Automatic annotation (TrEMBL):
One GO BP: DNA integration
Protein name: IS21 family transposase
PANTHER family in UniProt: INTEGRASE PROTEIN (PTHR35004:SF7), TRANSPOSASE RV3428C-RELATED (PTHR35004)
Native source organism of the sequence: Rhodanobacter denitrificans
Ranges for domain Integrase catalytic: 121-307
């Protein structure tokens, strides 16, 4: 029997039919106190104990419980009191003689009362929220933990998200640049949490000191920044929801891509497809509602922001420049010089005297060594003995003809042959490595084992002509002596043609 129907039957039996409360308790098999409660209320109370009053046994202990719960807010979440632990402390430290159930009920009620209550919000067009999420994926055959930048337009729920190898300031700023380009404009304001990528320090009275790079980004695009309360992720609930949506729908199963560029190309398509969705409570699609956002956006500047971390440094005696514990090589001609380092998400550029002297893939490891072997060939030409022990050349994959021509050069000329081989390697400074390796193979086929021959063959290939070698450099090659013809000899041939041949009758 449903409890509401039981209430109706008990109340009618006592209040209408005149049955006594004791008789009703016996007839319905219900406790006398329950009969009294049924006569006071027309229906059972809702599930829960929100209206419960606690007995005398807990009287005098509620303040202790409240203090314990209040102190718990300042400690790590995994070190907070359970209801059972509070009961043990009340029993052992304060002489509590009641049961654990009443303590559990009070703790549950107190925690429920302390939960924050929110006001439904409306969002005007032209504003945005930003946050980062993280997920695992297979990139270029390797399992990596990557981070993805999210920008949400709360009015229309239009999304933008892009993956990066690390959550760094360069990715944070590059995400803004990419999002602005994707939407075709700049939001009037953007709401953030208190990420260190934007906030260098939280000051009093709600003020914040911005990081240098974020301030530069903001000065370039002129949007207003807003920040949520520390530890209150719900202040930017729209983008928090987008982070979770992206993880659930686009990161499950684990994404697989050849590169971050390929992964982000797929994500961009999904951002566009998302515009077709019609969300609960709306009659228009995200794309249709986004038109109001775009109308309220500020126009893009003529030149996009350069999202890089720029610092100064100095090249060491080993032609290495250090950036965030990692060493990057520069040509040996720039050793000991002052340089400017421009660190982007995917690359590190090194500038000297306004000239870009080196570009490397950026490493997110620690104490890594990133070297271009071409940077050291000029010095190796002067110090050929160091060729086999030169660390920058470790891992440089060369085609088999390169190794064969080295053996032949060294067998013929020893130390000078090794230097000549380094000169062949230096051709990679001017030509593609594949072209140099092809030219070396052709020189081997011709028996022209020299730097000049390889160079001439490579140049001829670029100019699409037949190579002409100076044979004085190749005394070992067979020679054909071709005499020179005197032009006057042709006159004699013409004369003989005009007169009858000797011994032939006219």
């Amino acid at each position: 029997m449903k409890r509401v129907e039981l209430y109706q039957k008990v109340r009618r039996a006592v209040l209408i039919d005149g049955m006594s409360r004791r008789a009703a308790a016996r007839y319905f098999g219900i406790d006398r106190k329950t009969i009294d409660k049924m006569l006071c209320f027309a229906e059972p109370a809702p599930h829960g104990r929100s209206g419960r009053t606690y007995g005398r046994k807990l009287s005098g202990f509620t303040d202790i419980i409240d203090k314990i719960l209040g102190d718990d807010r300042t400690v790590h979440s995994k070190q907070r009191h359970t209801a059972a632990r509070i009961f043990e402390r009340l029993r052992d430290e304060h002489g509590f003689t009641g049961g654990i159930t009443i303590v559990r009920d009070y703790v549950a009620s107190a925690r429920l009362r302390s939960r924050e209550v929110f006001i439904p919000l409306s969002h005007k067009p032209g504003h945005a929220q930003v946050d980062f999420g993280e997920a695992d994926g297979i990139i270029n055959g390797k399992l990596v933990r990557f981070h993805y930048f999210c920008m949400d337009l709360p009015h229309s729920d239009a999304p933008f998200f892009k993956a990066y190898p690390a959550e760094v300031a360069e990715a944070f700023c590059e995400g803004h640049v990419a999002a602005f380009a994707f939407f075709g404009g700049i939001p009037q304001s953007i709401l953030y949490d208190n990420t260190k990528l934007a906030v260098a320090q939280i000051l009093g009275d709600g003020k914040r000191e911005r990081s240098r790079m974020f301030s530069t980004l903001q000065s370039h695009y002129l949007f207003e920044d807003k920040f949520g309360r520390p530890g209150k992720g719900n202040d930017k609930g729209k983008v928090e929801g987008l982070v979770g949506y992206v993880r659930r729908h686009f990161m499950v199963p684990m994404p697989v891509a050849d590169s971050f560029d390929a992964l982000n190309a797929r994500f961009l398509e999904q951002c566009v497809e998302r515009r077709q969705a019609v969300l609960r409570g709306n009659s228009q699609s995200i794309g249709e509602r986004m038109s109001a956002d775009l109308e309220a956006f500020m126009p893009l500047p003529a030149v996009a922001f350069d999202p890089c971390h720029m610092v100064t440094g100095r090249a060491s005696s080993m032609s290495l420049v250090r950036y965030r514990t990692n060493d990057y090589s520069v040509p040996t001609a720039f050793a000991h010089r002052e340089v400017v380092i421009k660190a982007y998400v995917e690359r590190v550029e090194i500038i000297s005297g306004g000239e870009r002297i080196a570009v490397h893939p950026r490493s997110y490891e620690r104490e890594d060594f990133i070297a271009n072997p071409l940077h050291y060939l000029a010095l190796l030409e002067q110090k050929p003995r160091a060729l086999d022990q030169a660390a920058p050349l470790d891992g440089w994959v060369l085609a088999e003809p390169m190794h064969r021509i080295r053996r032949l050069m060294e067998a013929r000329s020893g130390k000078e042959g090794r230097r000549e081989f380094i000169q062949v390697l230096r051709l990679c400074e001017r030509f593609d490595q594949s072209l140099v390796e092809w030219a070396v193979g052709r020189a081997l086929d011709m028996g022209a084992i020299s730097f000049d021959a390889v160079k001439m063959i490579a140049l001829a290939r670029l100019e699409q002509r037949v190579p002409r070698l100076d044979l004085q450099f190749y005394p070992h090659l067979p020679r054909a002596n071709v005499g020179r013809t005197d032009p006057r000899a042709y006159m004699g041939l013409l004369t003989k043609t005009a007169s009858p041949a000797a011994g032939v009758p006219a």
